[in-house]
Amino acid sequence: MNLGKLDVVKNEMARINIDILGISELKWTGMGEFSSDDYHIYYCGQETRKRNGVALIVNKRVAKAVLGCNLKNDRMISIRIQGRPFNITVIQVYAPTTGAEETEIDQFYEDLQDLIEVTPKKDVLLIIGDWNAKVGSQEIKGTTGKFGLGVQNEAGQRLIEFCQENKLVITNTLFQQHKRRLYTWTSPDGQHRNQIDYILCSQRWRSSIQSAKTRPGADCGSDHQLLIAKFKLKLKKVGKTTGPVRYNLSQIPYEYTVEVRNRFKDLDLVDRVPEELWMEARNIIQEAATKTIPMKRKCKKAKWLSNEALQIAGERRQAKCEGDSERYRKLNADFQKIARRDKKAFLNEQCKEIEENNRMGKTRDLFKKIGDMKGTFCTKISIIKDKSGKDLTEAEDIKKRWQEYTEELYQKEIDVSYIPGSVVADLEPDILESEVKWALESTANNKASGSDDIPAELFKILKDDAVKVLHSICQQIWKTQQWPEDWRRSVYIPIPKKGSAKECSNYRTIALISHASKVMLKILQGRLKQYVDRELPEVQAGFRRGRGTRDQIANMRWIMEKAREFQKDIYFCFIDYAKAFDCVDHSKLWQVLKEMGVPDHLICLLRNLYVGQEATVRTGYGTTDWFKIGKGVRQGCILSPCLFNLYAEFIMRKAGLDESQDGIKIARRNINNLRYADDTTLMAESEEELKNLLMRVKEESAKYGLKLNIKKTKIMATGPITSWQIEGEEMEAVRDFIFLGSMITADGDSSHEIKRRLLLGRKAMANLDNILKSRDITLPTKVRIVKAMVFPVVMYGSESWTIKKADRRRIDAFELWCWRRLLRVPWTARRSNASIRKEIRPECSLEGQIVKLRLQYFGHLMRREDSLEKTLMLGKMEGTRRRGRQRMRWWDSVLEATNMSLTKLREAVEDRSAWRALVHGVTKSRTRLND
């Protein structure tokens, strides 16, 4: 479908009053559904090739009654509509041409038969589309009328046989019409006309057909005529599904704060049951917000096709009616030209908004607009499969399947030994108002709210009044150890991952929880912090203050570097747990916390939070029923990472990793694992040692409900290694692995990751083309966009790269490629690199920024008294270095950049201001204005 054609099609639907429109040979890639103005579009095409493709477009009245859709393949789709007294199934097809292989035609009819067989027998069945067949003018009782066109061909005979088998009638052969109302296709030269598009209907509903004919006056630039059938059918009125409440929080009116504050003053805050107090506070906020705050309106996408283009489309339609083919072709070319012009003008307007947001300092709006412009077109896919692999297309079936899947995922027998609601008498110190104030202020804005539909902004604008009420609720929870029901509820949003979008297992369930509950959870997190920090070792860097993925990536690279330097073979196992966070056993979690010295009061609070928790799944057809959660740490809860870390640490202790002598020895220290939350990497100096560590971890993990995903667990070694068999499953040996987003290779060379990052940077740069080629965005803004959205992609994990001269040249070449692309300067222009840099005037080159990150990280590590990273960076491994010139090490690049010895660097990093000045000087020297 060409540029602007969808808007023309929608205009024609509105003009002619069409409720359901089928399109064949759409030539869109992918599949899905989306809304556009007052219409809803269902489509299916090939994955990558712009071939075939079918679509159904329905107006908003019909869209409300749609029960589900089945995106079968690139030649057929169907929708099911709720009708009275029977439902209606509409199938849109695009049959193979007569020149197609026989096997392709057979496959088409087999697929269509499958689609008919899954359609309920009582449904009103309509099959519409381009059949590429001629059924002729001969009447066949019950199948065709005597008002067809032309002579039947082989494809037409096949279609008639198909209709007879399924008791279908071809509607546009039943009514006597002028020939111009019968033919559906005209050849490009205008010399030949045929009837190859048909609307099929169940024979039992033949009396509902009022007419079926073409409308030659309708036009959207196609060589096919619009075929219209008028059916007398009734749609069932469908009630609105209640979606989440979305307030317009950009300007909360003063009336809201006045009303809530006045009503909060009347609240009795002393010795109240938490549930009752919360319900009163919640109702006050909801009532005041509903009354005073306007709802957030769904932003309609701006129409970019101008009235001039639509007027030309109207003139083109008139030329078609008059049979003026030459004028029609000219107007068609004019329409395409103006549509391209309108699209360009629309993009320029968007770019002006980007420039204005940048000028006004509206960073959030700036990058949101950039994301909208560079983002690929995303559609939703509602169809999912049941357990047996059958496609579910009905709304209720889809909701039930989501509930069934999530219940199975989190279902576990309830611990009968524990009495819900039990409390402990020995309490920790009371919650302070200052803690509540800190927790409320640190809660992030612009986040989706939980089941109570109250965003954090509605509390934060009340300031001390909200703090007082929330403090009272939190303190009552602290004393009674009982949580309000809303605070124990989660709303799951399925987010697709890699793989088929029809499989529930290929979705990540993101949970939305009450924003008010986050205040209490933050306070609880603060009280747990001392126990978490005390129990977790340095090898665990996940969700810990001052630690991050860069530390573990650096550790891994330095271990590889030491092994290469001292000629040691080392072996790694990258463990992948199957849904680790969702498989935590609650009863064992409380035992782990007890053994790790967490006070009974805090354990009881956590236990009562988990015992009564419920969840629902929000689908495209509404939410499921509420169901209980029996296992796994809470999705969306800020406590979950630290609880899981403690749980995983206990498993590693039980596996004996701390005491084991298996591992890698660096600076008299034995290291056999690195962890980032559930991402666990085992390492050893021999294959036998690694296998021993893996089996111990696997056995202990299984005891605590965590199962290894053998297919995704990989092994890698600097020396020779073969694939392993674990319980009949093969564990793959690889030469490279994406570790926390960074590629680690068996040879320990950073060049592979640098090349990969530069390729990702090129892709990110290409996605910004629409923005960077605009003349309405100033050069400084373009440079800022590139530095904010391209360079960070390249620099991820660069702190630990060991960069050689060849890598430097690649990085410099990539930066200049970016600037040349930004300036639209081709290589043939013969402009020097110096002139390009002079026009851009970057404060710091890309390589300079990488050097800066490396030196800052070096200084950060050197100032620590003792740390795992510092040990691995400077420590030595047992073994002998090879003869001759040694390979460059990471900290050799630090020495080279600063032109200082390691002893002098140790002294320099202690003076922070002097070190910052040194780093600034080094990075500036890397930014060359001349070649």
TrEMBL record:
<dbReference type="GO" id="GO:0004523">
    <property type="term" value="F:RNA-DNA hybrid ribonuclease activity"/>
</dbReference>
<dbReference type="InterPro" id="IPR005135">
    <property type="entry name" value="Endo/exonuclease/phosphatase"/>
</dbReference>
<dbReference type="InterPro" id="IPR043502">
    <property type="entry name" value="DNA/RNA_pol_sf"/>
</dbReference>
<dbReference type="InterPro" id="IPR000477">
    <property type="entry name" value="RT_dom"/>
</dbReference>
<dbReference type="InterPro" id="IPR043128">
    <property type="entry name" value="Rev_trsase/Diguanyl_cyclase"/>
</dbReference>
<comment type="similarity">
    <text>Belongs to the beta type-B retroviral polymerase family. HERV class-II K(HML-2) pol subfamily.</text>
</comment>
<feature type="domain" description="Reverse transcriptase">
    <location>
        <begin position="476"/>
        <end position="744"/>
    </location>
</feature>
<dbReference type="Pfam" id="PF03372">
    <property type="entry name" value="Exo_endo_phos"/>
</dbReference>
<dbReference type="InterPro" id="IPR036691">
    <property type="entry name" value="Endo/exonu/phosph_ase_sf"/>
</dbReference>
<protein>
    <recommendedName>
        <fullName>ribonuclease H</fullName>
        <ecNumber>3.1.26.4</ecNumber>
    </recommendedName>
</protein>
<dbReference type="Pfam" id="PF00078">
    <property type="entry name" value="RVT_1"/>
</dbReference>
